[in-house]
Amino acid sequence: MDDIVRQALAKWPNVPSCTGWLMLDRRGNWRMRDEAAQASGSPGTPIRHEALLGFINRNYDVDEHGQWFFQNGPQRVYVELGYTPWVVRLSANAGGALALQDQAGGAFEPAAVFVDEEGGILFADGSAQPRVAVLHDHDLDVFSEHATLTDDAMSGEFRWNDQLTLPLQAVRRGDVAGRFRFVPSPAAASA
């Protein structure tokens, strides 16, 4: 968290939080959701300002209830999640080594890989409370080059560099939030 945010929290500790105004979409884009977007259920307008994106990413965290938020100075802005709290991009360098990077620019080391009934690929890391990230759909070709799938595409294995072969596990999209203990819509949870 930025020092300026910590200072603002100390100076104004009781600023009410807000919900519904910020979304992380299925492709890892941060979106502003004005009242019209919230009322219509649309994802909102993508944020393109690099400094603002950096500020959001540095001050993105989770509370004790599994609700993800952006700490905007003294105000906590709860985030609507398009799917998971993290979205990763998968790339391979010229030598074939794979790398996963989350929407905040951090490295993501997979410990498990899942496929949902819609063909979405999810990775979980090996932390005590595993982070879960959906793979950006533009990277499905890279994924398939390193995976062996059964005919129904709901099982198989994924080869993570030459170090690890991860079994592909089936998961229902509707079960992901509960399994990984996050709230996809804090606005709905607080209503």
Automatic annotation (TrEMBL):
Any matching Pfam family: DUF2944
UniProt-listed InterPro entries: DUF2944
The protein's name: DUF2946 domain-containing protein
Organism: Paraburkholderia xenovorans (strain LB400)
